[in-house]
Amino acid sequence: MKTIIVPPEGAGKRLDAWLGAQETDLSRSRIQDLIRSGHILLNGRSAKPSQKLSPGLEIRIDPPAPVDTRLLPEAIPLDILYEDADLVVLNKPAGLVVHPAAGHASGTLVNALLAHCPDLTGIGGEKRPGIVHRLDRDTTGVMVAAKNELALRGLMNQFRHRQVAKEYLALVWGHVSPPAGRTETLIGRSSRDRKKMSATPSSGRPAITVYRTVETFAAVSLVSVAIETGRTHQIRVHMAFLGHPVVGDAQYGRPRRDALPVPVPDRQMLHARRLGLKHPRTGETLNFEAPLPVDMRDLLAALRKA
After folding, report:
1. Residue 66: what pLDDT?
2. Torsion angle, CA of 21/27/31/32, rounded to 10 degrees?
3. Across all residues in the chain, what is the average pLDDT?
4. Half-sphere exposure of 254 (CA within 13 A, CB side)
5. What would the CATH number be for the domain defined by 2-61?
6. Is 155 in contact with 132 (CB distance < 8 Å)?
7. Do domains 67-160 and 165-305 have the same CATH topology?
8. Fewest 10 Å CB contacts: which of 28, 69, 169, 214?
9. Average pLDDT over residues 143-165
10. Which helix (H) or strand (E) holds 187?
């Protein structure tokens, strides 16, 4: 339980708005829920989120313990790159779905984090990790998740305002021309296949991708990709839109099995290599890098040898 006495500068302010500016561990929506449920009292009495404050009033905050989520913890091995009381950064392997959904009720990253992080303090009153961004099931590389509401809000704010540096490596078919460039389109659901996204939809959200060729081979190129937005399948969609789909991407490309010195992988050769952000509590600049997965590394070695 915590008690706050409203100072003179709080006069006339809404209870939820003023308290939201003081209690950085709680979001404004969470504060509103706690007020309505009687876990935040004003002079010992229930209040409304919109109630105006006056100096000297006593605000008592006594949130309930976070309830257990209905999702089950699962002891799935994780490659942890960094961890503290606020966040966890990991190198996601191929094949791991990030969040439970239809067809993937278990065996996800969220299930793994529930088992790995006993110090979760709750998101929205529920004991669960905060998923800030996602990688496709078969995309590998750096991901960050929040352990509490302060971290979740801070990280989401950075992603929303494009303050996070993200670099991917991708093997794509052909030689991209020009070798470096910027692609900006709308991305939305394909009118032909609702399971796919399209860079030429009738409506969609702005998507910006910047690419640079790192290395070329006979049939494919290694490109470095930075995304300024985070749309579903963005890199895969934009590279296919440019005529250079990601190697192994059966959804947006085609196999071309005879074009490589080794069998075509059964997943897209796309890896989130680097992630740069500010720590949501301390403001410290953090940079993380994940090594290439074995299948992508072996394919590059075979291409260089050939």
Report:
1. 64
2. 110
3. 90
4. 5
5. 3.10.290.10
6. yes
7. yes
8. 214
9. 92
10. strand 180-189
User: Is 27 in contact with 16 (CB distance < 8 Å)?
Assistant: no
Report domain 67-160's class: alpha beta
Q: Active-site residue 136, yes or no?
A: yes
Distance CA 128, CA 132 (A): 13
Domain boundaries in the chain? 2-61, 67-160, 165-305
Buried b (16+ CB within 10 A) or exposed e, 155-164: bbebbeeeeb
Q: How many residues does the chain have?
A: 306
**C-alpha span between 91 and 110 (Å, rounded):** 14
CA–CA dist 205, 264 (Å, integer):
32
CATH code for 165-305? 3.30.2350.10
Amino acid 193 reads D
Instruction: For residue 178, say if its preceding peptide bond is cis, omega within 30 degrees of 0.
Output: yes
What confidence score (pLDDT) does residue 102 get? 64
How far lies 42's CA from each of 13, 27, 180, 201, in Å? 14, 19, 59, 51
List, for residues 204-217, the tens digit of each pLDDT value.
Answer: 899 999 999 999 99
Q: How sure is the predictor about 137, in pLDDT bands with cuts at 50, 70 and 90?
A: very high
Q: Are 187 and 198 in contact, with CB atoms under 8 Å apart?
A: yes
Using alpha carbons only, what angle is made at residue 277 by residues 275 and 282, rounded to the nearest 5 degrees? 145
The SS3 of residue 277 is strand
Q: Copy the structure tokens of residue 24.
A: 């950085």
Contact 273, 280 (CB under 8 A): no
Is the separation of the CB atoms in 267 and 296 below 8 Å?
Answer: no
Q: Which of 40, 29, 32, 87 is nearest to 64 (CA)?
A: 40
Give the mean model confidence (pLDDT) for residues 89-102. Answer: 89
What is the residue whose two structure tokens read 């302060």?
150
CA 206 – CA 199 distance, rounded (Å): 10
Radius of gyration over every alpha carbon of the chain, rounded to an integer in angstroms: 23
